[in-house]
Amino acid sequence: EDNLFVTGGSAGGIMTAWIIGKNNRFKASAVIKPVMNWISKTLVADNYFGYAYSRYEGQPWENFNHYWSFSPISLVGNIETPTMVMVGLNDLRTPPSEAKQLYHALKLRKIETVYVEIPGAYHNISNKPSQLITKIDHILYWFNKYRNK
User: Fold this and answer.
1) Burial tier of 133 (Cβ tally within 10 Å: 0-12, 13-18, 19+)
2) Looking at residues 118-135, what average pLDDT do you find?
3) Which domains are assigned to the chain?
4) In what order do the strands lie in the sheet with 113-118?
5) What percent of the chain has pLDDT over 90?
6) Of 41, 144, 20, nearest in space to 94 by CA
7) Any alpha helices (H) in the chain, and if so which ranges?
8) With a threshold of 0.90, does the pTM exceed it?
């Protein structure tokens, strides 16, 4: 219970960002390839068309508050958990701009954070062995930094 950590990628990244915005029980978190803002995700990502017509009622400009209420970035004012944010540099599904929103917001709030881009990686961030090793090494380093603190 003294060494709880949380991580997730893609949908898990969304949930990780959401849970650290809802409670501060974790020593550290690793938010991997998240969607932080459903408004920007719907208008930027490669699969925008499906989201624009099936995810929420109306378009972002028509239903701004609804999109915002489901966006993890709306909870960033509650986050106290040291957070590593990671994304594939070439990710079109959850673009780096989504991850940067969390990173920049945490920096503005002076919450301990690091931003990691995996060069050459798309949404399958650990497609190559070198990418997998980079991902795991960064997560383990980040969590070990906060173990037993």
Assistant:
1) exposed
2) 94
3) 5-146 (3.40.50.1820)
4) 5-9, 28-32, 83-88, 113-118
5) 81
6) 41
7) 11-22, 38-44, 48-54, 64-69, 96-108, 129-146
8) yes
